[in-house]
Amino acid sequence: MIRIPEPLYQAMVEHARREVPLECCGILSGREKTVEKAFELQNAEKSPVRYSISPLDQLRVFEEIEKESEEMIAIYHSHTHTIPFPSETDVRMAFYPDVPTIIISLKEEKAPLVKAFRIGKEAIYLEEIEVIS
Ligand SMILES: [Zn+2]
Question: CA-to-CA distance for 21 and 103, rounded, in angstroms?
Fold first, then answer.
């Protein structure tokens, strides 16, 4: 279960819309599964079908999270034309199996779908998202 405050949830969807046609990506941090901060990052791949976060960006965000004594709660990215389910690339590139991956699908332009998963080597688990006010 991940709890995301409504404004941060909306900001994440807006970020996804702003980056179209590219996939967006970012990191959510906070405490006890509750998101307190969103880091909007550059998609180092500059691609409409995949994403990566540059090592420099990752380091910068990890340092800031540590400084605030927070933890990484999720990594998010968008799917501009496909459903919110991990792609083969997402599975191959899932380096943090304990950190949920959030996917924002813009397939239905007017009704974006946001889903979270834990992507393991053997299975993909759905993780519940609760939007809090
Ligand atoms: Zn993906």
Answer: 15
- C-alpha 98 – ligand 1 centre gap (Å): 17
- Provide the residues around ligand 1 (an ion) whose CB is within 5 A: 87, 90
CA distance 107 to 44: 22
pLDDT in tens, the chain (133 residues): 999 999 999 999 999 999 999 999 999 999 999 999 999 999 999 999 999 999 999 999 999 999 999 999 999 999 999 999 999 999 998 888 889 999 999 999 899 999 999 998 889 999 999 999 9
